[in-house]
Amino acid sequence: MQLNKSWLFILLLSLSLGVDACTTPQTVYPKLALVDQILKPREGFSGLTHRTCASLDEQGQCKWEIEEHQLDDASFRSTMNTLNFICNIGGRRFKICLDKAGFCRMQSVSCGWFCHKTVEAEFIPISNYKFLLDAKTTCFNKYAYPMGDE
Amino acid sequence: MLGLIGSAIGAVSAIFSYLNTKASQKYIDQLVQLRTDLQAEEDKGYQSDDARIEDLHKQIKVIFDAAQQELALHIASKS
Predict the structure, then answer these.
(1) Among residues A83, A125, A122, A119, which one has the least CA distance to residue A100?
(2) What ipTM was reported for this prediction?
(3) Which residue in A14, A52, A118, B55 has the fewest CB atoms around it within 10 Å?
(4) B18-50, pLDDT tens digit by residue?
(5) Is the CB of A105 less than 8 angstroms away from the CB of B46?
(6) For residue A38, which of A59, A69, A75, A13 has the smallest C-alpha distance?
(7) Chain B closest-CA separation from residue A17 CA (Å)
(8) Structure confidence by residue, pLDDT tens digits, A17-29
(9) What Cα–Cα distance (Å) separates residue B9 from each residue in A85, B24, B73?
(10) To the nearest whole angstrom, how far is the Cα of B79 from the nearest Cα of chain A?
């Protein structure tokens, strides 16, 4: 009987710790201005998204609010570049293309003596969404957040 | 990001100044040049060469690692 009570005590203690872990109070954060947002693709969406803990429910858990931005919006693409956004796609640096819905990697090439021009070296369309998810694509203002493992 | 790198470069430069060796001065000079090159490339905005910027960051990281190693060796030699 004594052994059964010990096991019961351990079981109840474990359950209470588990319940506490599940209901740890979370923090509501105010919605950030676009320049401070970290944008990424998410399952079930087709554009770049930003997620915030908008409010808490009765158990103190976040009610997540997800804002989505579509890259086929030319004014959004222009804004992202004006705000100095860059994107980390699989550890490589891309920008949001100005002229099309996707991500561009630019390269400086020689065009003769003392002549250099910048060309588009690589393009990943936003429609290649699975790849962007697999590559943990993250876009952010280059002055606000570090790139990669720095 | 450049602000963070600037602060880190400052810290590394301080380490090298403290060590005050010929190798340290060479590292400081390299860091200054890399930061200048990085700033120049970043200033091109959309037209910046992304692979070059990645490469500059990697070079800066190599020097950071070298600074940590130099400091560790210096501390070990003093103890």
Answers:
(1) A125
(2) 0.71
(3) A14
(4) 666 667 778 888 888 999 999 999 999 999 999
(5) no
(6) A69
(7) 40
(8) 555 445 566 778 7
(9) 23, 13, 20
(10) 31
Q: What mean pLDDT do residues A71-79 have?
A: 96
* Residues of chain B contacting A147 with CB distance shorter than 8 Å: 1, 57
- Mean pLDDT for B7-26 is 70
Strand partners, A139: A39, A87
CB within 8 Å: A106 and B54? no
User: Among B48, B56, B42, B75, which residue's Cα sits nearest to residue B9?
Assistant: B56
Q: What angle (nearest 5°) sits at the alpha carbon of residue B69, between those of residues B63 and B29?
A: 30
Distance CA A107, CA A130 (A): 25
Give the number of beta-carbon pairs within 8 Å between A and B: 49
B62 touches chain A (CB under 8 A): no
Give the nearest partner residue to A108 out of B4, B5, B49, using CB atoms: B49
pLDDT-above-90 percentage for chain A: 57
